[in-house]
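Quick board copy: two proteins, each given as sequence then tokens.
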Amino acid sequence: MISKTDLRKEARRRRKAHPDIAAALARHAAALGLAPGAVVGGYHALPDEADPALLLKELLTRGCHIAFPRIAGAGKPLDFHLVPDDFYARGEVLRPGAFGVHEPGAHWPSVTPQLLLVPLLAFDNEGHRLGYGGGFYDRTLFALKKEAGFGIRAIGIGFSGQETASLPVAAHDMALDGILTEQGLRAFR
């Protein structure tokens, strides 16, 4: 089987070929089935990543609250911080943190999301994802699903063209509950 390192290189190459799908993702917001008041863990897209910004804005208009992750340290789960509901309107910016990932201010309240939007390089038809190799989302999902017994849902955000026949799965890899692409939401669990 191909190594995860080689799969990541190929996935990055394929991902660059996809157009912007932010508006298409936003059109599928209702499919997430979130009630007003739900807290959604989003992310600030890296270059070439499927950008959830318009989806997050749409979820705000539906009464959801948005939290962004902060990297707490190597080997630790992500910390999520609630951003003000008028975050986008105020033009408040996230600041570059570890690994160049934009993070919320530490002064924003810490919160546990009910739904976690997860970036990825590739996914398969069983809900496995290929991430960037740092393990942050796997540790976060493990902590929230297994250790805390919290019913968080994890939805991968990507392009339909990022699907692959299969991915190598290690014991620490946490599967997604679904994937949202420009084609809509597909549930795995």
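And the next:
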Amino acid sequence: MILSFDTSTKAFSMALYSGREVVNLQIVRDTFHSQNIVGVTDFLLKSIDASIKEVNEIYAGIGPGSFTGIRIGLSFANTLLETMDIPLAGICSLDLLAFDEGQWYNAVVSFIKSRKNEVYTAAYRNGRRTSEYLALEKEEFKCFIRDNSPTYIVASEEDCKILSFEQCLDEIEIVHAFPKAQNAYSLAQQCKLTPARRYLKPLYVRDF
């Protein structure tokens, strides 16, 4: 059984995958909902009459995004590695945004709001990332969009409203979404990511 989750944004997303069956849950709240990660895991396992002992792989979102949320999620994953020897794979949360329902958007820029007037972002085309993971100011981000000419921009509705840049995006479709844990396994397969018995670390875009 495979457990996947992403805690990089205000939408805490978790999924369990066993064969062709997928059970998932996404909670959108203003508080640090990822602090309830143990309870949500227990709830999902009980919903399919399963035990944590049946989980043999974990796919966890490593950010970028909320430092507190990511830290809580990876602490949980690393604890399961240490106590139960469950191998882990880290998935970039921007990649999860750019990958939806088992396929990549053709040409896409995904972003997650960081500080005021700043975003984490990356560009993708035909299933390949074509830029570095970046932290950009609002005006820099507008230039980044123009330079990459995406067909889609993927981000949460709230992040789009806060940045209020929609009026400058002619002929670009905006998709409102959060990173979905239910897509982590399919994305890992396409990117040939294999879980391993090593601790996961957050993806830092900036140098601290």
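Board note added afterward: The mean pLDDT is 88.
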